[in-house]
Amino acid sequence: MSGSAENFTRQDPRRDPWWLKWSLIGFVVAFMSVFIIIPVGNIFVQAFANGWQRYLSTFFASGESTQIQEVQFNLNAIGMSLFLMAVVVPLNTIFGVAVAWLVTRFKFRGKAALLTLIDMPFAVSPVVAGMLFVILFGAQGYIAQALAWAHEQTWAQAGSGQYAVWYLNWLNGQIIFNWPGVVLATAFVTLPFVARELIPVLESQGSQEEQAAITLGASGWQMFFRITLINMKWGLLYGMVLCNARVLGEFGAVNVVSGNVRGQNTTIPLRIHQLWEDFSLTSAFALSTILVVVALITLVAKVILERVSDGTVGSRVRH
Amino acid sequence: MSITVKNISKLFGSFKALDDVSVEAPGGQLVALLGPSGSGKTTLLRIIAGLEYADAGQVLFDGEDATERHARQRNVGFVFQHYALFRHMTIFENVAFSLRVRKTPRDEVQHRVMELLKLVQLENTAQRYPSQLSGGQRQRIALARALASRPRVLLLDEPFGALDAKVRKELRRWLRKLHEEIHVTSLFVTHDQEEALEVADRIVIMNKGRIEQVGTPDEVYHSPANSFVLSFLGHVNVFHGRLEGGVATLAGGQQVALSNQPGGDGQITALARPHEIDIATDDSHGGAAAKVTWVHRAGALVKVEVELEDGGALLVIELSPERYANTPVVAGQRIFATPRAARVYGAEYQI
């Protein structure tokens, strides 16, 4: 270590200049603050702006009749969202596993078309999706019209169109503007999550272990539950977590099919929107805290799943 | 338990993977399916295992038709080239898998698995996971797993293909020894002729979905049925000449002793193995004039590559060190090459 060597400074060619690094850090921090950290933090600030008691009064009734009704609507919305979670996530999980299995283990015509179609819900605006379901299943929808027409044909000799009218009245409100419609619309919007996550996982694993299981005497179910399902468990959980986040957050499609009747078929995001329009800001933000907490849990779950799976699932695979 | 394959054909699209193939693996033998890639050997093995279905033909185990039986009911042990161990299970559970799916009692599983781990000399790995084992160890575990339910036959698909050269040689000797101990009818696929010649009781040589020859290593090596078998089991050198009244005369004028008796007279190509060629520095014994292009001396035999002056064809010649000491040629030198023996087949051989 002679003195002359230390005097001789040179720039490391692998390293960018210090000012570039620090200006990039500054820019990213400023951007994140404006667009994410401050707004998200502000949700909690607004929710608790009028104190704990006011926050809790969003969820717990305290005597006043109008307040009781509001709380009931809020709780209905939470219940509806939980119900959607319980129905749609398993539905799309089963669908996702079936599609991923089909696409990675079988050769057939139209595979590329199927893969493109699965992504359709990501490409189309949720509002449009909601409208599609109204047009299809609604009281004036194609199916209703077809059924009504069939009834008229059948009963024409009897000289009575009243059955068709009755039928339309019955159909009205059974699917669209009722909970089945909300389930349908939400399932449509969240359809790709599990399938998209599983296809690369199953593809990279190949079918050798499955073939080995078969030659060792396993039945189809034994093979699926002991080998395939366990090998794809992290990818499956990852897809379910993402699917769940979207189920809880979906607004556009549900807004169209729910009918927007207060306290009925209302999910948390729809209820937040109603409260917002009523200038009930504290309650709106209080409900929002639920979604933010769910989002944070989702992010933590994502990171954990990416770690435990050794990078075989999630965003790190694609890098 | 013998395996019989009768008139199996299999098409992949318009590609004929197997074309009316019949093979017999007698009980207790270790049989090699040897051939270049694309010869259909792996497809045949998978059809025997039930992992693939033939378009036509039959698979019989001990004379009993198993063609329509599902892979899980055939009770064959299958060893995959890339091991296919269950990555989320311990070694113990891997080996125990076939017993577990058959609902074998607990203590019997314990006993059988430890017995097998002992057989493959990996008892201390029971609680480890496949990723913690070396390639050679994984393949031994795959073998133990395949043997757990006492299969009627053992099928191995390029079992040593994914291993490095040294481990491969060790393992094939070990497989030979293991087979002598357990004597389960085994069929293994390989494209490595040395492996097949060293390990197998019988070799089935395949090419383009057909069988070229079946025989002991000795038979196929010393009496190859055709030029494909000859050239697949080692390098061959090609000489042109004429056949008249059973006497072969090469283009250079020298006569050559034939190891087989072809019929008919006319133009021939005579094929000689590298060790069947003599070289001399003068043409007192005749021989084809050639120029030495390369000499490899590292190895048990000295390998000399020469280029024929007439036509420029390349010959590979192997000499014992003693013979090389008598005629120590160097690169660039002019020599005369004479085959001591050669084989002549019909017109099917093409280079």
SSE string of chain A: HHHHHHHHHHHHHHHHH
State the largest interface: A-B, 16 and 26 residues
User: Rg of chain B to the nearest angstrom?
Assistant: 25 Å
What is the makeup of the main sheet of chain A?
A: none
The quaternary organization reads as heterodimer
**SSE order of chain B:** EEEHEEEHHHEHEHEEHHEEEEEEEEHEE
Mean pLDDT of chain B: 89
Structural class of chain B: alpha+beta
**Fraction of helical residues of chain B:** 25-40%
Radius of gyration of chain A using CA atoms only = 27 Å
| Total count of strands of chain A | 0
The proportion of strand residues of chain B reads 25-35%
Strand adjacency order, main sheet of chain B: 6-7-8-3-9-10
In terms of DSSP E residues, the strand content of chain A is: under 5%
Reported for the largest beta sheet of chain B, the result is: 6 strands, mixed
Helix content of chain A: over 70%
Give the uncertain stretches of chain A in residue-range form.
Answer: 1-5
The tally of beta strands of chain B, per DSSP, is: 20
Overall spatial form of chain B: elongated
| Straight-line N-to-C gap of chain A | 42 Å
What is the typical, i.e. mean, pLDDT of chain A? 85
